[in-house]
Amino acid sequence: ELPPVSNPADASQQTSLSSAGLEQLAWVVGGTSGIGLAVAVQLSQAGFHVCLMGRDAQRGAEAITQLHGAAGSNSFIQTDVSNAQAFQDCLHHLLDISGCPDVVFHSAGMDCPGPLEEIAVERWNLTMETNVRSAYLLLQAVVPAMRRKRAGAIVVNASTKGLIAHKEEPIYCASKAALIMLVRCVALSIAKDGVRINAVCPG
Fold first, then answer.
1. Whole-prediction pTM
2. How many other β-carbons are positioned within 10 Å of the β-carbon of residue 167?
3. Which residue is catalytic, options 76, 87, 105, 172?
4. Is there a catalytic annotation at residue 172?
5. DSSP string spanning 14-49?
């Protein structure tokens, strides 16, 4: 079974996170609320062992209680996707201890409303780091592993605002448009390897 852990350091001491004995493993990045949590619930209902990732430990603990499955069959890993090194370390540590996930859902994101001239560069950076760079780092970690086993499904949560311009949210729209194009390009490169990737665009 996949025991609940709060951070990668704790996870390293849980030998039962070994891929031996796991049936199907799903990672949900940004899975403590909203669409990410809803997807995590559905995956747990379908019998997946679900690993949630998010910043807030309290929200993560609360989210775990909403998932289905035997006690200890799902887990929460605390990580900040806007911190590149910490997020990379978390992903590679999870690959080492639990193996390649069968399903990955990327739902980490933040809004950035306001006219262009009022958005500070720090806000631009944080939005792009959270919405786009985190997806790039996630794909960079899991795609090679999925290619090796010639199986896997990846879904990235984008938005209709990545397809249709909104004058009040230029930075958010740009980040979601970048996600959609990233997915399209990766899809072309991995289709021959038996790995699927899609973007969903709610809104």
1. 0.88
2. 8
3. 172
4. yes
5. -GGGSSTT-S-EEEEET-SSHHHHHHHHHHHHTT-E
